[in-house]
Design goal:
Layout (H helix, E strand, L loop, with lengths): L1 E7 L8 E8 L5 H11 L3 E7 L5 E7 L2 E3 L3 H15 L5 E6 L3 E8 L2 E7 L4 E2 L4 H7 L5 E4 L3 E4 L3 H6 L4 H7 L4 E6 L6 E7 L4 E4 L6 H12 L3 E6 L5 E8 L2 E6 L1 E8 L6
Parallel strand pairs: 2-3, 4-6, 11-12, 13-15
Antiparallel strand pairs: 1-2, 1-18, 3-4, 4-5, 6-7, 7-8, 8-17, 9-10, 10-11, 12-13, 13-14, 15-16, 16-17
């Protein structure tokens, strides 16, 4: 089985978010995909198979289990397919199990992906949130993920949350965000202890919640987002009602053959 390792949402190696991408001729057992994801120990490993209709089925596994949606591994998969399998194509359609179809388009300055927007259901700011983050959010929202909004970029960058307390907050991912500076509309970080990931370096899916929030606050459709993890990443987001388009770059780190037995 061919596997590629890609740094997503960056144009520089060793930045952005690492994703492993396995391109297969047919599906393998779920437990084998899970073991490959655990062995890779990245935030996500993507698995894709081309269908007879010319589209690709796509699934994502974190070390802690399969997830319903991953933005950076979708970008990594799109980059691999455009680079090695669909060199003449400008568009790839992905079929997903829980989120419908995603469309990836090759652009001059990267790859643009169209995703469903998350809702922004307000929830109370709790003492546990303040304890977990070491600072009190001014607002909080919940969908699949928890999003907490803070007043300061420095608060986001200097945050050192308690992993045990984060686990009690709920949400597949936990995003923290503030209004940005230095040419960015917002800054964020994302934690995912439920998936055995303390901090996710650059997170496309949670920006389907972050971008609509800042689009509403700032009164603009286009949001330039900076994720302030150690690896850093830039996401160019466009909010279109119930969908969010995210554009990013990716670079190839390696490719290999996996030595796994497939029946």
């Amino acid at each position: 089985m061919k596997q590629y390792i890609v740094d997503a949402f960056t144009d520089k190696l060793f930045k952005g978010n690492q994703a492993a991408v396995c391109v297969m001729e047919k599906w393998i057992p779920d437990d084998l995909m899970q073991n490959i994801a655990i062995e890779n120990n990245f935030s996500e490993t993507a698995f894709t198979v081309k269908n007879s209709d010319g589209c690709y089925d796509l699934r994502w596994f974190a070390p802690g289990g399969e997830i319903d949606f991953c933005g950076h591994a979708t970008l990594g998969t799109s980059f691999v397919l455009f680079s090695f399998y669909e060199k003449k194509s400008s568009t790839i359609v992905f079929h997903t199990r829980q989120k419908g179809d995603f469309i990836a388009k090759r652009k001059e300055k990267g790859i643009t992906m169209s995703f469903p927007a998350f809702s922004l259901k307000p929830v109370p700011v709790t003492d546990l949130m303040t304890k977990a983050f070491g600072a009190k959010p001014k607002e909080a929202f919940f969908d699949r993920d928890l999003l907490c909004v803070f007043d300061s970029v420095d608060t986001i960058k200097n945050m050192n949350p308690s992993e045990n307390d984060l686990k009690e907050l709920g949400g597949i991912c936990i995003g923290v965000t503030a209004k940005g500076g230095d040419g960015f509309d917002c800054v964020s970080r994302v934690f995912a202890p439920q998936l055995n990931i303390y901090e996710d370096p650059v997170t496309g899916s949670t920006h389907c919640m972050i971008a609509p929030y800042w689009s509403s606050v700032l009164g603009k459709r286009n949001i330039k987002a900076f994720q302030a993890s150690k690896r850093e990443g830039v996401l160019l987001c466009e909010v279109n009602g119930e969908s969010v388009s995210i554009t990013g770059n990716a670079v190839l780190f390696s490719s290999c053959e996996l030595n796994v037995a497939i029946d």
